[in-house]
Predict the structure of Annexin.
Amino acid sequence: MFGCGLCLCQINKTLFVLGVDEQTITDVLTKRTYNQRREIAFAYERRAKKDMISALKGALSGSLETVILGLMKSTAQYDASEIKASIKGLGTDEESLIEIVCSRSNAELMEIKRVYKELFKKDLEKDVCGDTSGDFAKLLLALAKRAEPSSVIDYQKIDEDARALFEAGVKRKGTDVKCWISIMSERSVPHLQKVFERYKSYSPYDMQESIRKEVKGDLEMSFLTLVQCFENRQLYFANRLQDAMKSKGAKEKVLTRIMVSRCEVDLKKIRQEFKAHHGKSLYQTIAEHTKGDYQRALLNLCGGDD
């Protein structure tokens, strides 16, 4: 890897001397960590007397611009910005909102809330509740208010919780959504993994099948995302990536969001799950469904073929 001085020289030449060279911008910024990209941006500003983000906006466009500008934010800043974008203006992008709020850990959500307040001078909980309604809003609010990260397994409550989930759903007519929200937002991930295993001794369906039978729409997608992430978060993201690249072309919004938000978190494990469950590497799949500098950026973030 080049040192920051050489990176800065390349970026400087690319943006102001030689004209726009997307390949150089892509290679320099997608092969660095967020902290390294920050150092490059600070050094660029000192030397060029211009803001690098503004220069990148002027030099890039389309999908590549979305990726590169996303990478110039920390993971929490990126997630906070994506949540804000999903509830901004007319209508709500429920799919994006659900993916972020329901897939992030307690620790990640706490940092996202802090950064959201810092960036937008508003409380994330209030903004989310103001843009959603009903049980869907109650679930998102409960998740946003989750306590400090915990790995506690309350062995005395495993059976009680499993039975309560069954009795609140499959066993009765109608669903006691409040009970489901309470258990899934107040228990630790290791505890819930035990609960879902025990649940099978009460219900003829596993937890995911029960959700599909009991609730629909945004609430169904939210509960399914939660349970899938409680069981195997990296597999959830691998499946989302596969779904985004099922047909010809790709759902670039989903693909970009997952690659940018997870590249410094757990992308290597997501790659492993992708290969294990879909019979082809994530690298090869991206190469087949994308093109140009956007493809180059995503392949660099992917980091290698498995």
Residues 117 and 290 are 35 Å apart (CA to CA).
